[in-house]
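Session log. Operator J.P. requested a structure for one protein chain; no other inputs attached. Running the standard single-chain path with token output.
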Amino acid sequence: MLAAAASEAAEPIYWVNLGLKNYLFRIGSFELRWYSLAYLAGIVLGYWHLSRMIKAPGAPLAQRHADDLFFYCTIGIILGGRLGYATFYTGGSSEIPSLWAHPAELLKLWHGGMSFHGGLIGVILAMAWVAWRNQLNFVRVADYIAVCVPFGMLFGRLANFVNGELWGRVAPNSVPWAMVFPDAGPLPRHPSQLYEAALEGALMIVVMLALFWKSRARYRPGLLVGVFTVGIASARFLVEFFREPDAQLQRFAQATGLSMGQWLTVPLILLGLFLVARALGRPELSMRRPIEIT
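Structure written below.
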């Protein structure tokens, strides 16, 4: 549809002409923003799907564990995402003063600034806490959570597009769906938010759901989380070639040849490959008897 509109008009697509707003409704000074709804939708849908997954044979956890994961992972996403942004994207060589020097600013989530890698660390810590407290196998818990994460990735990247933020690099004339975004200058750019939504979200949803429901991947501890880690990190690495580096880190990208997002995905790809190789090199779990969960 976007390509057709571009060809008919014989000029770039202007984001402002799409009629998008970054909020669902506004009452006085209060706004219910799509970005907030994206986080909420991803978490709730992930919790619903996890509750379905644990009813299938071979589940390593019970509903009460899923409830705990829902609570602690939500905290991990918010705190991890915010602290990760303060660590990786402010201070140092960036042009934004370090948020660590202004702790009160860390609480102002409405000012924006969330890191995917920080949120990932927060979720890992949350899973580790729930697994340790309930004597669950951490890797198998991670397998089940990994299947649900792409829902949030899809909604989050779509919200980035609706907000007209995190746009891509300047696109050549051969890209008919290139867009002119507000505050990004007059040149058409790649809608890299949609690329991320397609690869990190939609594609990974298809891959992870197929592996869980149509194969025996759940019986190979580490396989699901390994495939997810390789897939999501590879998608992020690829899209970064089309995504404009964060304004405060453009000099860093020019000096190192890769963006901060790409450097942070390299260890994730290596970890994911290790988990996949390890899972495939071991025999499947035997589930002839039901797992006892206390």
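Operator note: Strands lie at 13-14, 23-27, 30-33, 179-180.
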